[in-house]
Amino acid sequence: MRLEHAGVAVDLPPGWEARARTQPASEPGARGNLLLHAATVPLPAERGDFGSGVVETLGPDDVFVSLFEYDAQDAAQALFAATGLPVPRPSDFSPAVLQRTQLGHSGAQFFFAVQGRPFCLHAVLGSHSRRAPGAAKVAALLARTSVRRTA
Amino acid sequence: MSTTAQALSALAPGEVGASTLPPSLSQRAVDSVTGWLARRTSRRGFLVRAGMVGTALAVDPTGYVLRPGTAYAAVCGPGSGASSGWTVFCATIHNGVNACPPGSIAAGWWKADGASLCGGKARYIIDCNASCSRCTTPGARAGICSSSCWSCSCQSGLPGTCDQRKVCCNAFRYGQCNQDVRQVGGVHCRVVSCTPPWRFEECSTAPATDNRTVDHNSDKLPQRYTAITARYIALGENGSELGASVYGEVAVAGGTAQRYQRGRISSKPGVGTWETLGAVSSRYVATGAEGGPLGFPIAAPSAAARGGRAQRFQRGRISWHAATGAFEVRAPLAAAYEQLGAEGGALGYPVSGTVAVAGGSAGSFQSGRISWSAATGAHATRGEIARRYVQLGGEAGPLGFPVAGERTEDDTPGPWRRPGAVRVRRSDFQRGSLVLDERTGVVEQRPRSG
After folding, report:
1. Do A70 and B204 touch (CB under 8 A)?
2. Cβ of A74 and B147 within 8 Å?
3. Which of B285, B248, B247 is nearest to B263 (CA)?
């Protein structure tokens, strides 16, 4: 099943749910940015952009991914010097890399630009001790994700 | 695999979704709890029920169910324990100051909509991340250096506060601020604001939202949306001349007051809500602030003559100039001072506060003095006459208090100015007069005329 929105497309592997929307711009006249969530659990309607409301429901084998886009002009900043979607490895995950640390959970965060668009990818695993299969799930999802340049 | 209608029934407005999940027991459980609480809570305006309620239950289930009407009113809000995993507020660990502590920088922000602490509008939470003061981590894509490089170390559970959240533990970056800094340390603490952070920090506008944090707070931060909050927001909050708040509001003299890094806001029903700034504010506090002789401010600070600043209070005025500093002119001297043009008038700026003298009070100015007693009222002496008056002992001297303002006259009595008569300036006192010959600059003490 394919989800496509605002120049980002993902072919969902079995056992995933994904949502995407264009965020309302903070200032009048500004362009809204993409937010994509994907998880191996159901996504509630009300959830924080980096996963609060979802990550609390993750089981040990579950995964949550947030692809958060920044303002287009941010792409030139040093924070987004890396290019291309990341390929997460187990070693990228840490129990401390979370918006809100939770016992057993593990997270990874990547800043990068693709097609001139600046992003943060934040992935949360339900179990740090099972980060190897968790990281593989995230990597598999990202392998099926593509980003187009938008006007 | 097919899209499940159940899983996608909770799409937010504007969202598109797809699912390859089988129907889920957990989703049904959340839906069930949501419906149960929806029948028992009146806070629908704050919560989009689906999911949010399930989240509230997940974070603080006992507190939320037992105290649904007051859960958000708890001083430090939900998730205030170290085990919640959230990061502490900067005010909690930084002497009440709602600003990034030294060594940390704003690294990102999110907002929580519908915040009662912001009058129903969005409340912004800004992460202050540590710096990578010891090293950087080559090749790191996370925007965060290794924890061994951070300028702070992980702590939790501070004593003496209900904000027991973690200090410098979470290696997370929201990413909108100081993007020119490729790597920062972990989140040291959090700053709150009702003003968008890109208006006072180096931040971009990319909006991140987490409504679950709308009532996170600290007992070292302001606790309610008040007239003072509204005034502070109107002035620009952290980006204003006041700077960051320092602790919360306090009750004072029938009103309330709030300290800031560079000033104060005072509020009293029927009087108003006004800020005092910089040196004027410092002097105001030194005189006793709202409970002192000046009472509450009754207007905003205003520009005064020659680049100075002045502010009116219930019972007086404070005037500041770089050349003189800030001093108060208390009632009833202040009325006489304002009649003479205040800072731009004949007296110039005050060079002392209002002081008690035998039988009354007095204040000194760049070009004179104002003296007050109940018997005589408040009157000014100016220039050379004032200088001589002080030399003679001022109010406690042989002349006593002035009984009128200075006047200019011919030095011969009579209805007409005679040719050759001397033009003089005269001030009358309780027990005599001082007369200044404008040609010679000589001041004579004479018996009081009339």
Report:
1. yes
2. no
3. B285
Mutate to test the interface with A, among B86, B169, B179 (most CBs of A within 10 A): B179
Q: Provide the residue type at B366 as one letter.
A: Q
State which amino acid sits at residue A89.
Answer: R
As for how many domains chain A has, the answer is 1
Q: Which amino acid is at B66?
A: L
Chain A: nearest CA to B119, how far in angstroms? 18
Tokens 């506008």 correspond to: B205
Q: What is the CATH number of the domain that holds A49?
A: 2.60.120
Taking a contact as any Cβ pair under 8 Å apart, which residues of chain B between 158 and 197 contact chain A?
A: 166, 169-176, 179-182, 186, 196
- Chain-chain contact of A78 with B205 (C-beta, under 8 angstroms): no
Per-residue pLDDT of chain B (450 residues; tens, 9 = 90+): 344 444 565 788 889 999 999 875 445 444 444 443 333 333 333 333 333 333 333 333 333 344 443 443 479 999 999 889 999 999 999 999 999 999 999 999 999 999 999 999 999 999 999 999 888 888 767 799 999 999 999 997 788 899 999 999 999 999 999 999 999 999 999 999 999 999 999 999 999 999 999 999 999 999 999 999 999 999 999 999 999 999 999 999 999 999 999 999 999 999 999 999 999 999 999 999 999 999 999 999 999 999 999 999 999 999 999 999 999 999 999 999 999 999 999 999 999 999 999 999 999 999 999 999 999 999 999 999 999 999 999 999 999 999 999 999 887 655 666 667 788 999 999 999 999 998 899 999 999 865
Beta carbons of A85 and B243 less than 8 angstroms apart: no
Å between A113 CA and nearest CA of chain B = 11
Whole-complex ipTM: 0.96
Residue B278 DSSP one-character state: H
Residues in chain B: 450
The owner of tokens 């904000």 is B163
Flag if A78 and B182 touch (Cβ within 8 Å).
yes
Both structure tokens of B146: 């290794």
Measured between alpha carbons, how far is residue A40 from residues A131, A147, B27, B159 in Å? Answer: 15, 21, 12, 39
CA distance A64 to chain B (A): 14
> Range of A42's domain?
2-23+32-147
